[in-house]
Design goal:
heterodimer, A: 250 residues, mainly alpha, 2% strand, elongated, B: alpha/beta, Alpha-Beta Plaits, six-stranded mixed sheet, 33% helix, 26% strand, binds adenosine-5'-triphosphate, binds magnesium ion
């Protein structure tokens, strides 16, 4: 799945490189118009393109599979009889999902940087605030953006973990989690539901622009962290209360 | 391991154990008593609640009511202390199909916090060797045959020295060699002092390896005791091989026996069977009476009841699953 994610920036880079005309300003996904001047923008474009669907989808697959996948194989009963301990098993599974979220975001960024520097010029970047930063500093900012995106997905991963404890059919858990990710983004786009927006786990998904200013503004990072933390507490708690007493009959 | 339980202590003890699924009572107030060091056969027709009992015993499912003690400790409260000392095969083996046999066992062993990682390789290899799977250890489980998976499942139960082995239908899908090996494996484990709790349909099998047995029927425990006790409850039969079935039947009736309809044998003769209550008629006087009436007796035997007779008497003849 990480390889599929890494393919996104590669595809974008190849498309831009091979097409005869440059995308005009404001055409296509954000930052695309700047790719041909600076290859590092491939990483940002890849990230923005992956956030609404591709990243949540892969995270849904990873998180939905955690417990339901073991139940589906029938290996859950042997893990518990080993005994793995129910709480320990949940913790290990969520930790693996967290690692996956960060690895997913980082692989998009890394693939973007690599393909961008291979196919295009790389140079200092002009920030949203108008300041210019060096290539090294840009890479650091990209890393921060990847961490922000990875962090953004932790709430969804916790939801996936909880849904995964409800069923023995991993595909069902994956699909339900992915559907929730899409529903949350749709709700976030309905102006009538403005009161709800700050509570949606996808609300800050595209809010990493603050990391591209000079000086860096950490407000959105903190707000996002707080929101995701809330989701983690609630849904890991639900997963625990469900799984701790669940009859394992698969 | 400690193994310091006194001999009188029960390895498994349930009191009024009940498990309901919705309205259906899968296990209905059973009082199991599995003595320490026994090889205990857990018998019952399909759907009689054997696997459900095992799940509750191992803390996988919660009892609706009643108590379970395993190795002298309450379950599921002492699950962390008890389960490392218990090896289990529960409703058939289950593995990650994309991993090799060795990798699967290593993964399950890692799940047990008490299993030392330093000795893991050696223990996994030893367990694979014990079930005769060494040659296929590197193969993906996806490519295993039914019997190979079953053997791997047994190997998983043997990863650590255990005080109790719970084996749910261990010989399912095994070839005759495999069945014999499991039998000798169970015997050697029992000789080492491991209590073996084995659920099975193969009554001849159970009769050979078990010291004790219990019979389930529709969620209830209908009999429990040593295998000899269980067998003794059933009636012995006299078996007469003769071509003169009608005469033989008449003689048996006159002696106060109730002969069953004759079976014809493939050698041209027939067999007449009749239940023989203890000490009513001496077998030798039956033969004498038959011969005196001119019945051509080609064979005569008194057969004590088999576990199968007892099992059928307890759980019914019908093929249909109860409930
Ligand atoms: N997950 C479940 N939900 C509802 N009912 C169940 C479930 N699992 C088992 N049962 C019911 O409980 C009863 C006992 O099932 P169990 O699996 O314990 O039987 P068993 O004695 O192991 O049978 P077999 O010899 O076929 O393995 C059956 O009537 C079965 O339908
Ligand atoms: Mg069963």
């Amino acid at each position: 799945m990480l390889a599929a994610l890494a393919a996104v920036p590669v595809l974008i880079a190849l498309a831009v490189r091979l097409s005869s005309r440059d995308p005009g300003p404001g055409q296509g996904p954000p930052f695309l118009d700047r790719v041909s001047q600076n290859g590092l923008f491939i990483a940002l474009t890849g990230m923005v393109v992956s956030i609404p669907l591709f990243l949540p989808l892969t995270v849904s697959v990873a998180a939905g599979d955690t417990i339901a996948g073991e139940a589906g194989h029938g290996t859950l009963r042997y893990l518990l009889a080993a005994p793995a301990g129910r709480v320990r098993l949940l913790a290990v599974k969520y930790a693996a999902a967290v690692v996956f979220c960060l690895a997913a975001a980082l692989s998009v960024a890394t693939a973007g940087v690599l393909i961008g520097s291979a196919l295009f010029d790389v140079g200092p970047i002009t920030l949203l605030s108008g300041d210019t930063i060096s290539v090294g500093e840009s890479l650091l900012r990209l890393f921060l953006v990847a961490c922000y995106v990875g962090l953004s997905l932790l709430g969804l991963a916790a939801i996936g973990l909880f849904i995964s404890t409800l069923t023995e059919v991993p595909v069902g858990a994956m699909a339900a989690t992915a559907v929730l990710a899409v529903v949350s983004q749709i709700l976030d786009n309905l102006p009538q539901l403005e009161w709800l927006h700050p509570w949606l786990f996808s609300h800050h998904w595209l809010g990493f622009a603050d990391l591209l200013r000079q000086p860096i503004s950490w407000d959105s990072f903190a707000a996002n962290g707080l929101l995701q933390g809330g989701y983690i507490v609630v849904f890991c708690g639900l997963a625990y209360s469900r799984f701790a007493t669940k009859d394992v009959l698969s | 391991m400690s193994g310091a339980l006194p001999a009188t202590e029960l390895a498994i003890e349930t009191t009024g154990l009940t498990k309901r699924f919705g309205h259906q009572t899968a296990v209905d107030g059973i009082d199991l008593a599995v003595p320490h060091g026994s090889v205990f056969g857990f018998l019952g027709p399909n759907g009689s609640g054997k696997t459900t009992t095992i799940r509750v015993m191992l803390g996988l499912a919660a009892a609706t009511s009643g108590y379970v003690r395993v190795l002298g400790q309450d379950m599921p409260a002492s699950l962390r202390d008890v389960l490392p000392r218990v090896g289990a095969l529960i409703e058939g083996p289950a593995f990650y199909p994309f991993l090799s046999g060795t990798a699967n066992l290593q993964r399950f062993d890692t799940a047990d916090r008490h299993a030392s990682s330093a000795t893991r390789r050696a223990r996994v290899n030893q367990a694979l060797d014990r079930v005769g799977l060494s040659h296929a250890a590197g193969k993906k489980v996806r490519a295993y045959s039914l019997g190979m998976k079953q053997r791997l499942g047994i190997a998983n139960a043997l990863l650590m020295p255990r005080e109790l082995l719970v084996l749910d239908e261990p010989t399912n899908g095994l070839d005759p060699q495999g069945t014999r090996e499991v039998r000798s494996l169970v015997r050697s484990l029992a000789a080492e002092g491991t209590t073996v709790f084995v659920s099975s349909h193969l009554l001849a099998e159970v009769e050979q390896i078990c010291t004790h047995a219990a019979v389930m029927s529709a969620g209830k425990l209908v009999a429990q005791g040593t295998v000899d006790e269980l067998r003794r409850v059933g009636l012995a039969h006299v078996k007469v091989q003769t071509p003169d079935t009608e005469d033989a039947g008449r003689v048996l009736q006159r002696l106060g026996l109730a002969p069953e309809p004759p079976h014809s044998n493939n050698d041209g003769g027939s067999t007449v069977r009749a239940p023989l209550a203890d000490h009513t008629v001496a077998p030798e006087s039956i033969v004498a009476a038959l011969v005196a009436e001119g019945v051509r007796v080609r064979g005569f035997a008194v057969e004590s009841s088999s576990l199968e007779d007892r099992f059928v008497a307890l759980t019914g003849e019908g093929f249909d699953v109860v409930q």
